[in-house]
Amino acid sequence: KREKMASVSEMYDVGWEEMRDKLRKWREDNYRNSEQIVDVGEELISEHSSKLGDDIWIIYEQVMIAALDCSRDDLALTCLQELRKQFPDSHRVKRLSGMRLEALERYDEANKHYDAILQDDPTNTAARKRKISILKAQGKSAEAIRELNEYLEQFVGDQEAWHELSELYINEHDYGKAAFCLEELMMTNPHNHLYCEQYAEVKYTQGGLENLELSRKYFAQALRLNNRNMRALFGLYMMAGRGTKENKCSMKAVEEMLESMQITMS
Amino acid sequence: FKMASSFWKGVVGVGLFALAHAAFSAAQHRSYMRLTEKENETLPIDIVLQTLLSFVMTCYGIVHIAGEFKDMDASSELKNKTFDTLRNHPSFYLFNHRGRVLFRSPEEEPSSVRNQQALPNPIRLRKLEHLH
């Protein structure tokens, strides 16, 4: 029997509203701290389900996915059954049962689930993305890349998919194409310093004269957007030592640039 | 905090009511002017004052109800974002990671029951400290 640990609300002296708000924050910001989600969410649904109202369904979904991460198949099944009872014909719930099958490594059954959804609704993006994830899980990266490219030809605005594709390309060491994906992301999110920084890192890895030049520019851009980005700062210092004799970026030039951006030792 | 928000909601309500009242008074004054044929007289000062004051009161009350303001600088709200969360793509989550084995409950591993029972709980307890 699992030992009964003190409940989360006792240990941290939080009320159910704070637990619910924490879960919302984790959900909106894409945190994957599954152990915590399971602990907080499990207590919330077992003891405060009546007070949650309609929020409870999305919490069930969130807890189910976290439970799959933590190998809590019992909890995942409970959440799934509650959702099935409430939304019997929902594609979203079908996708969740497909995800559960994926976690149990029953990929063929999961694929059948998603194909059924797609037959019913060919525009369902979630099912297509899960099929691509199955290919990734099975190690078929070339096929996954091809499918994801086809998906992006139809749904050009899907930023999550562009970032996923860039990650797949990086794993295949195809840095040119990864850089292209990150360029798409930078175009649609010009204020996001992290995309600039990742682009600069990919260009740096590619190597070669123009790429290093671009890399330096984008590290600087990332720092301009956020002068606390440590990785971009480090990247810029790396650039100071590199480059050919003609355009060697001296340490002094880098220091002047940093001063102008008001990045001090503090 | 809940008390405070209903106070500001009250303020907005009173402000809107006063605004409506001032408008109604102005309309009445206008029709009275038309009846007594003194159309060149301006609106009485108290109606004007009431309009302005109720407008200011409504604005002030709404600002308090509206919730937290965001920075105008678009990049500043991204300052705290890290790759930890940016890299997570919920639609593409995979489950074939070591969590499937690491978190498996001790009952399923009869061979090494003694060692495993001691291990998972302390790790879980330590990690919960990050909740706040």
TrEMBL record, chain A:
UniProt key word Repeat: yes
Residue ranges occupied by any EMC2 TPR-like domain in the UniProt entry: 94-203
Primary residence: endoplasmic reticulum
Repeat positions for TPR: 159-192
Membrane topology note: Peripheral membrane protein
Localization annotation: Endoplasmic reticulum membrane
Lineage top rank: taxon: Eukaryota
Stored InterPro entries: EMC2-like (IPR039856), TPR-like_helical_dom_sf (IPR011990), TPR_EMC2 (IPR055217), TPR_rpt (IPR019734)
Keyword terms: Endoplasmic reticulum, Membrane, Repeat, TPR repeat
Record-linked Gene3D superfamilies: Tetratricopeptide repeat domain
GO CC terms in record: EMC complex
UniProt entry tagged with the keyword Nucleotidyltransferase: no
Subunit structure and binding partners: Component of the ER membrane protein complex (EMC).
Family, as annotated: Belongs to the EMC2 family.
Primary role: Part of the endoplasmic reticulum membrane protein complex (EMC) that enables the energy-independent insertion into endoplasmic reticulum membranes of newly synthesized membrane proteins.
Record-given protein name: ER membrane protein complex subunit 2
Organism expressing this protein natively: Dicentrarchus labrax (European seabass)
UniProtKB/TrEMBL annotation, chain B:
GO cellular component terms listed in the entry, alphabetical order: early endosome membrane; EMC complex; Golgi membrane; plasma membrane
GO molecular-function term, one example from the UniProt record: inorganic cation transmembrane transporter activity
A Pfam family that the UniProt record links to this protein: MMgT
Family designation: Belongs to the membrane magnesium transporter (TC 1.A.67) family.
Protein's job: Part of the endoplasmic reticulum membrane protein complex (EMC) that enables the energy-independent insertion into endoplasmic reticulum membranes of newly synthesized membrane proteins. May be involved in Mg(2+) transport.
InterPro entries recorded: MMgT
Subunit annotation: Component of the ER membrane protein complex (EMC).
Keywords linked to the UniProt accession: Endoplasmic reticulum, Endosome, Golgi apparatus, Magnesium, Membrane, Transmembrane, Transmembrane helix, Transport
Main localization, broad class: endoplasmic reticulum
Name of the protein described by the UniProt record: Membrane magnesium transporter
Lineage: Eukaryota, Metazoa, Chordata, Craniata, Vertebrata
Membrane topology: Multi-pass membrane protein
Transmembrane region(s): 49-69
Subcellular location field: Endoplasmic reticulum membrane; Golgi apparatus membrane; Early endosome membrane
